[in-house]
Amino acid sequence: MKHFFWLIAVLSLIFFPVISAAVDCRLGADYYYRAKSETDPQQVIAWLHRSVAVCPNFNAWYMLGLIYTQQEEMDPAIVAFSQARAQAVSSETEALALARQGELLARCGYLPRALQTLKLAKRFHPAPVPAWLEASLKNTRIKIHQSLISAADIMYVFESGTQISRDGRFSVRPAVNLPVHFDFDQADLNSAGTRQVIELGRALSNPSVKAWSFLLVGHTDKRGSMAYNQTLSENRAYTVKMELEHRFPSLIGRLETRGRGERELLYDGDSQEDHMLNRRVQVTLYD
After folding, report:
1. Among 64, 138, 148, 284, which residue carries the largest CB count within 10 Å?
2. Domains in the chain, start-ordered, CATH in brackets?
C-alpha cells in the first residue's frame, strides 16, 4: 500500500506540471486570438505579450514582430522575431522568423549580418522559397557589393559556427561571399578589391582563429566559355591568396584555393546585377 501512495506521489510530480503547462498554453492561445480580434495596435501588443508571458509560442512572437515593424520600432521587432525563431515548430516557421529578422537588419544597415540571416532563411525554408524572401536576399547582396565588408563582420560570420535548423533537417557552414573587385576580364585586383582583401586578411589573421585554415573559391559570371571562366576563377582565387600572404604572413600555409568558374551561379539571369553578384570569391573553413 505504501508503494502505491509513493507511486501516486511521483506521478503527480510528473503530470501536474504537464497539465499546468497545457492550461497555460490554452490560455496563451486565448490571448493570441483575442489579440487578432483587436483593432487598436497597443491593445494587440498588450494581448500578445500576455500570450507569450503564460506560454511562449511562435504565433504570438511572430505577430508581435510584424506589429512592431509596422510601427517602425525596429529593435523590439528584431527581438520578437528572434524569440519567434526560438519557438519555431518546423524549419519553415524558423525560416520565416529568420527572413523577417534579416529584412530588419538590412533596413538598419547591418548588411553582412542581414545577409547571413537571409541565407539561413533560404536554406531552412522548404521549396518553394517565398518570392519576398528571394527579393530581400538579392537586394541585400546588391547593397553589400557596393560596400566594404569589415573584418569584424567577417569574423562574426565565422565565429557564429555551423547553423543547424531546430528540426535538424538543414545545416549551413559559415561562409562569406566577398565582393572582391578585379580589373575587367583580368585576375588583377583593383583598388576596391585590395581594400576588401585587406579587411579579409585582418579577420583571418585574428589570434582567435589562428588554428583555422580557409578555402578561397573563385566564381565568375556565365559570359565567356566554360573553360575560360574556369581558368579565370582559379587565377582570381590565387590572386587573393597571394595578396593575403604578402600582407599577412601568418596566413602562409593556411589558405587553399579552388575555382568553380560559372558552375555555381547565384543567379541564372542576364542582367548586369546578376552578372555582378555571380562574380565573387567565397571564403569557407577548410577541413
Report:
1. 64
2. 20-145 (1.25.40.10), 174-285 (3.30.1330.60)
